[in-house]
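Could you help me review a protein record that somebody else here produced? This is what I was given.
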Amino acid sequence: MGVWRIGADELAESRFVVSPLLETVGALLVLVRGRPRLDLAQWYRAHRPAFQQLVAGDPLLPALLDGLFRPRWIADFVIPPPDAGDRTFHDALRRVRAATPVFTRSALREGFGGPLPHRLRRNDLGERTATLLEWVWTQTVRADWPRRRQLLGADIVARTSQLTAGGWSAALAGMRPGMTWLGGNELRINAYDYPPRDLTGARLSFVPNTSPYGWVTWDEANRHAVIYPCAGTLADSRPASPEALARLLGTARAIVLTALDVPRTTSQLVALTGYGLGSVGGHLAVLRDAELVTRRRAGRSVLYIRTQLGNRLVAATTSGRTGLS
């Protein structure tokens, strides 16, 4: 199995980060393979035709995409791990564009398990890959980035809270199939038969993305990253407001209260409900005054939690009733 051996110092300095570039790679994977998450189905339907037209109009792109995304494998040069100096999408994209012909051809040969197809025997594959990613970012992701960033940030807050409460085993639970904290200093990243990898001195990042796909990556600078699908509870559909509860509290407050089936931050509620930050904050204040919701601090975040009274109210008004869409 694939195991990373991570020292205490490396683990202590690891971080959860958001990466616009790796989010764009995930979006490209969805455009290529399908399987969008429920909340991105409309995005997929809107952008898939233009993407298909782009690929059909460039003889290189079908072969390039086939080389970049093999079954259970992604070419290393398209997924550089996050760097502390990355501030924008283009900061990270520069590393894709700068990939040398030797590096790109080597990575693609590994994916094919043999010689490259004739169309890929060229020296500009890093540049062409960067141009494709820039199109995906500009045409399909950038306008939706604020909402996606909220979802990714909410996942990070939830993982950090789990880390505080239950350690790395809790924080990494369910992050991606096959990945398990084995204890000691060993993280099983998948079930493949690879030799253990020593991460001494490495910079380790955990990176959520809104696609259903996950992968791992590292580079010669000893940067390592685990990219994983963000929590589905925030990326599925907006919670329904039970009819009786909506009549009692109003639809918006009923939605906020029912969304607190687990403790959440204000940012998570904004991402989950689609309401603005000020609106969610106002509804939480009213619910707190009514003693239906309380709050507690978890590190630098504030979690809102339903009280026993709030739980009883939701249970009483949802029993045997259908929700409003």
